[in-house]
Amino acid sequence: MPLKVLILGVNGFIGSWLTEAILARRDWQVFGMDIADNKLGEVLKNPRFRFVEGDITINKEWVAYNIRKCDVIVPLVAIANPAQYVKDPLRVFELDFEANLSVVRQCVAFGKRLIFPSTSELYGMCPDPLLDETTSNLVYGPIEKQRWIYAASKQLLDRVIFAYGVRDKFDFTLFRPFNWIGPKLDDVFESKEGSSRVFTQFLSNVFHGQPILLVDGGRQRRSFTYVEDAVECLLRIIDNDGQRASRRIFNIGNPASDVSVAELATAVIEAFHCIPQYRHLAAAARIETVDSQTYYGNYYQDIQARVPAIEAVKTALDWEPRTDLMTSIRKTLEYHLQRGDFVATHINSTRTGTGG
Ligand code: UGA
User: Fold this and answer.
1) 188: closest CA among 164, 172, 205, 212?
2) What's the pTM value of the predicted model, to 2 decimals?
3) Domains (ranges, CATH) in the chain?
4) What is the pLDDT of residues 198-239, one digit of tens each?
5) Best probe residue, ligand 1, of 197, 201, 207 (max atoms within 8 Å of C-beta)
């Protein structure tokens, strides 16, 4: 019998890419729920994919029924944009923590394998040059810095899931995305500051002829990971050959793409320059600096460096990232070019359904 995979938040960045990869490269069936379907495109027509439009906090019976029916559960519903952590921290707690805790408990009750998104944010301001799943400390700022409600919510879920594993031999994998990037991350048509994570925000700034804003000068660093590499790793986690992913925590990131936010801005403009149809946008691009209080408000605190150790995932799953930063940016721009986004006229008013 082919595996049945339940993906909650299937229309999100990770969900939509994972569904596409599963249907293309495995014989599994996918059952998915989300509040929209705009990122799913062609996969909606695939007979091995069953999509239901709905909200997991409302359609609880559908969720419970499908957890019982499926073999592997991938709950991806979450708010994952730092601007939202400081704007609506309780909503982050309710959705990212409370709604997901209920799913986790049902997986435990029905003995289902859980593939759960932890986060690179969990390490907080840990000073380790390489962040290690088993040895790095998790370091957060004071309560007033509400940014940390996301990391704290995710941390407690990690601890709960891990404890079920120890006590009940519950079968799970926790994966920690390190700034996964690519097409469909956030809504590139939305130009408002803070509407997207940095990668989409910078693309959107250039597409809309608005300045790229470097928060606090852009010296802070991230390790950007191309989504297709990352999703290949998720397929191996779900395969779980020899149970090598069971009850494990894996960083999924690209330590070779560790750059400062200022370097990311320069690379984005360079990538625009390399595509003739977008070259005029590169020529018009500007980089400015803004302080974090102005951009995010008082409740924000930043992370200065974040490089994943990836020995664990290399050894267990024989996985390594392959795509460098410039290729990741170019592939994302080529995706938009192919769809005709922002081509010919400076600002294209016909939205083609790429949105977040
Ligand atoms: C992200 C989010 O918390 C989650 O999506 C996720 O769990 C995790 O990290 C991850 O993907 O690994 P962060 O990397 O801080 O957190 O979020 P971004 O919005 O992508 O910001 C990255 C950096 O760029 C921050 O230092 C931010 O201040 C800066 N930034 C952001 C700018 O300089 N300019 C902007 O316009 C936006």
Assistant:
1) 205
2) 0.96
3) 4-181+226-256+307-322 (3.40.50.720)
4) 999 999 999 999 999 999 999 999 999 999 999 999 999 999
5) 197
